[in-house]
Write a structure and sequence with these properties.
Elements: H1 2-5, H2 8-33, H3 42-46, H4 48-76, H5 82-115, H6 123-159, H7 164-179, H8 190-216
Length: 217
């Protein structure tokens, strides 16, 4: 069992699950909460169920992300550099903290509205909540995602567990997340898409290797 948990397949599957769930959750939130003016509560009535579904996906994507971090660190073993390991683990955990904080704020707004749907909400407080969610996701979480991409790209290049082009692509996209416009539409989706590309390659490579070994035996 322990050997199976250390295989590249375990990390790849965790990365794919994380990417798909986070992509779907963020897309549903984006198309729902982006409607109306910043002080409008129209999205609460028109898209409440969609927002609730997207928020329910975020904890599971976070679990898959933690699994991905754990399996990757285990595979690195003695090759893991302490400095890189600190940045890798710290940025990943901070990313999850920002992601969960934004989801908690959105969930609180949704719960308050659902408890008294006929009562008019304070538009200033609603605007504050939306701004807080946007800053947590588009500024802080995105920056930590960029740092995480840098650290994983470095690991990919120096250990060879993924093609060098994926590592260099991660450097470029990480720079984009770090220094690009934090409020650029859909920029956050760069991170799960890159993790999906990396995970899909690791999984395909592992399956090819197992198939080759099976044919030799």
């Amino acid at each position: 069992m322990k050997t199976n948990l250390r295989t590249p397949r375990a990390a790849a599957v965790a990365g794919i699950i994380f990417s798909i769930m986070l992509f779907l959750a963020f897309w549903l939130l984006r198309v729902s909460i982006s409607t109306g003016s910043p002080g409008s509560n129209a999205w609460l009535g028109d898209h409440a169920s969609t927002v609730a579904v997207s928020l329910s996906l975020i904890p599971f994507s976070g679990i898959a992300f933690l699994w991905l971090i754990g399996v990757l660190r285990d595979r690195l073993g003695q090759r893991e550099d302490r400095l890189l390991a600190t940045v890798f683990l710290g940025s990943g955990l901070l990313f999850l903290a920002m992601l969960f904080s934004a989801a908690a704020v959105a969930s609180a707004v949704l719960t308050v509205y659902s408890s008294t749907p006929s009562q008019e909400l304070d538009l200033r407080m609603l605007a504050f909540a939306r701004t807080l969610i946007s800053d947590l996701m588009n500024v802080y979480a995105v920056k930590m995602a960029g740092v995480f991409m840098f650290s994983i790209s470095t690991v990919a290049i120096y250990t060879g567990f993924a093609p060098r082009y994926i590592g260099f692509l991660g450097y470029g996209l990480g720079l984009f997340l770090l220094f690009g416009n934090p409020y650029l539409e859909w920029s956050f989706l760069v991170f799960p898409l890159w993790v999906l590309l990396l995970s899909a390659h690791v999984l395909a490579n592992d399956l090819r290797r197992r198939s080759h070994v099976g044919n030799l035996t």
